[in-house]
Design goal:
ribonucleoprotein, 2 strands, TPR-like_helical_dom_sf, two-stranded antiparallel sheet, about 0% strand, mainly alpha, about 190 residues, Ribonucleoprotein p18, 9 helices, single chain, elongated
Length: about 190
Amino acid sequence: MRRATNQLVRNASVAAAARFAATSGAKKYDLFGYEVDTNTAPWIEKIKKCKYYDEAGEVLVNMNVGNCPPDLATYNATLQRIYEAPSKQAQPVENESKFCAMLDLMEEMSHRNKMKPNEESWTWVMKECVKSGQFRLGYCIQKVMEAEFKSCPADLVKQNEANAEKAKAEGKEHPSHLSKQVGLFEVKIE
């Protein structure tokens, strides 16, 4: 019994040492032991050349198929593409939201690839909030950035405040469908 246990421990030690040697070099390996391609530069260039942000998503899928997992720079390039693209596809999709696409990508980044979005990542989201005039979402992103990075770009905060003031001046500070609702104490029960 002791001999079998010693053999088992020795084999486990050799296997662990082999795994350590394999992963400590410049090469990376995935969960199944296949070598992972870490050269994301050509993929980032493909993302930057995409006209619509749906195409950038396809590039990310192809990266994963090619066993080249996206890194932080790749995700940030994709967020930039979402921000700069005119639309999701050549024919705009009803109710498409760049903000939702960005948060979806950041969720994949955080949960699937265990990568924490950095300040640049959140800055692209804040820029989209400002560009689209969604000042309420801008306030939320500002709070996230202040909590995570202790600051939010001052120019974006100022532009978001300008969007809020403009909405207030136009009487659009609150969504119209909410302003048409009857208050709880104004409801007459018969």
